[in-house]
Amino acid sequence: MSVRRAPSARPSPDHGPSALWTPSRRALLAGAAAAAAGPLLAACGSSSGGSGGGGSSSKTVTLGSNGSDAVPKKAYAALWAAAGKSTGDTLKVNVKQHENFQNQINSYLQGTPDDVFTWFAGYRMQFFAKQGLASPIDDVWQTIGSHFTPAIQALSKGLDGKYYFVPLYYYPWAIWYRKSVFKQHGYTIPANWDQFTALLKKMKGDGLVPLAFGNQNQWPVMGTFDQINFRLNGYQFHVDLMHGKESWTDARVKKTFDMWASIMPYHQQGAAGRKTEDATGFVRDKKAGMIVAGAGTAVQQFTTDPAALADLDFFPFPEITPQWGMDTVEAPCDGFMMSKSPKNKTGATKVLEFFGSPAGEKAYLDLDSSELAAAKDFDNAKNTALQKKEAALITGAKNLTQFMDRDGNPTFVSTVMIPALADFVRSPNTFAATKLSNIEAQKKSIYASS
Amino acid sequence: MTARVHRLTKRDKVVVAVMAGIPTLLALCLVWLPAIASIVLSFTNWTGVGGLSTITFDGVDNYKQLFSINPQFWPAVEHNLIWLAALLLVGTPLGMFLAYQLDKKIRLTKFYQTAFFLPVVVSTAVIGFVWKLVYDPDNGLINSLFHTNKPGDYLDWIGSPHLNLWAVLVAAIWRHAGYLMVLYLAGLKSVDPSLKEAAALDGAGGWQAFRHVVFPVLKPINIVVLVVTIIEALRAFDIVWVFNKGAQGTELLSILITQNIVGEASRIGYGSAIAVVLMVISLGAIIPYLWVTFRRERREGNGR
């Protein structure tokens, strides 16, 4: 434990635009412009500060972490300790509040970033690799490559084909329910869309909220879009849409929204004011039948009640187009990257090799049981039945998607899709006909410029 | 002119240079440079990644997109103006009313003053959080009291675009009224009690005394209040950010700026364009005020 600096949940004040942007500042414009100038200053700093890389004799590896929530914080602490013991280096860890870490990543990476930092697989990683803000780590992968399946290997590569990412864990998105509720009402697991909509109708008739729903955090709703879209239109179309290659005015996208609109009446009312965690509570309390959610969110709400946790189960999002079946699973993967010019490259490489080893994954997962090890040879004997089922779902998938905000351009998703999807949730029936051309127009300008 | 300069000693010159120079320098660095940088950046396209060489100029493209295809922009302008109107037409009279009542020697006046002033001392982010608990759709105070958290008659104070702006404005007005109450209380202290007594002797009722005696004396305070209110309305940000992050129905220009500039990947130019629009609106509110003030001063100066 001595390796770990006392973590602070507060964002450190020395990085980037969000830090400079204090909302209560008097001059709003000055603040906005200062925010604009932040990356400028950071950019200046990096040219002089980042040159000390390579064969530094320092035995310290610095690490930037977004693991500020209680459970990940403890699990990461165990991981740092294990890594320090295994490599003999001292790990200096800088923990930032989860969402602040993401919001400041841009200026953080351009300033004086830590040698290694926590990040996400998918386009969200490729985006920063493409900007030259991360180091390729093919040498790390020569050591750890054999631990991972081809699907995970693909997720860890940049657009240039080099490795930039070391995966730690992932978790699947699915539809969660309580076995006892299904048993009590005689429900069966829906295998396709027709059975699914019939089940929704039945649940409503039985006085249950068919689909618990919370979108106050504004991103969870993306999971439903992603899953309907790749079930209906296939993995390739979905990924091309996310990468800006397909048009949002395409009839296939409209169909996705139309299908979603058709089940919207079965979603819980008041989603915009409810956190997705609280929505899961309705399933736990047997007031709602099901919820579309990631494993972490679903399990977390049940951990306080072991009996309920034992009763929790899930099924994959039902088939829509038989051609695609259920070949794709949304399984966001979290892990690590190396900044562009680490001060202690040798040490950072060793640490990353440890993070990508089964021993590293074990150190973390022993304390955070809501996630699944990304390594295929991880000893999962200790996993619960539910986790084994989750793992089987992911390893059985032909394709893995990350999540809209990890597969798509981050600017586009945060400034266009978040408000657009919130708009859809409120007026589902008029959305597809009127708003898609606007999304496409905004997409074109954003993808063209970044 | 030259004669006067010659009379200054070297030390005087240094003092003048320091006293005038430091504020000028601060204003230049912290206000003018960022403002001008914002205007310049608003005609560019920049992701914020890479040095200045990665900035490309693309004319008025940002503005064109903002005015034509951004579905959040015009609602945000509208909401900022509604915010201003609500603070001016509801918050200000309410603050004045509270001050006028508490200025009378009623019992427990210190207690009431403290109670009404409390929200001003508390950070606006905390206010947003507290009201969020009150408005929570499932377990909030209001929906629990009125049983409006059942399917069918669900009142979504935070999410529904028909309700959320008004809900958050209640919180903003609550705070603003307390702020103005204190300003007006200070102003009322300067009203000579003999004026009020004279009005009472002449048979003026409460309203008449207020309208013809007290209100005119408060004029200097009213100007301060107007400026404070305009600033508060245009910089409105934190309550909404905490309340629902500016979801549909509560979009504000300040929030759009933040969303476009602060974040994983930013559109610095686009966000700057929104900032420039906000600046133009601020100028539109402040310039008429300055114009009137300066004209009056000039007139009074000539009269002497």
UniProtKB/TrEMBL annotation, chain A:
Organism: Mangrovactinospora gilvigrisea
Species classification: Bacteria, Bacillati, Actinomycetota, Actinomycetes, Kitasatosporales
Region (Disordered) residue spans: 1-21
Residues in the signal sequence: 1-42
Entry keywords, A to Z: Signal
Protein's name in the database: Sugar ABC transporter substrate-binding protein
Family annotation (InterPro entries): Bact_solute-bd_prot1 (IPR050490), SBP (IPR006059), TAT_signal (IPR006311)
Keyword ATP-binding: no
Keyword Signal in record: yes
Pfam families assigned: SBP_bac_1 (PF01547)
Automatic annotation (TrEMBL), chain B:
Name of this protein: ABC transporter permease
Cell membrane among keywords: yes
Subcellular location, principal: membrane
Keywords assigned: Cell membrane, Membrane, Transmembrane, Transmembrane helix, Transport
Organism listed in the record: Mangrovactinospora gilvigrisea
GO cellular component, one term: plasma membrane
Annotated ABC transmembrane type-1 domain residues: 77-289
Annotated membrane topology: Multi-pass membrane protein
Lineage, highest ranks first: Bacteria, Bacillati, Actinomycetota, Actinomycetes, Kitasatosporales
Top-rank taxon: Bacteria
Family matches, as PROSITE patterns: ABC_TM1 (PS50928)
Family: Belongs to the binding-protein-dependent transport system permease family.
Cross-referenced InterPro entries: MetI-like, MetI-like_sf, UgpAE/MalFG_permease
Family annotation (PANTHER family): BLL4140 PROTEIN (PTHR43227)
Chain ranges passing through the membrane: 14-43, 81-99, 111-131, 165-186, 268-292
GO biological process: transmembrane transport
Subcellular location: Cell membrane
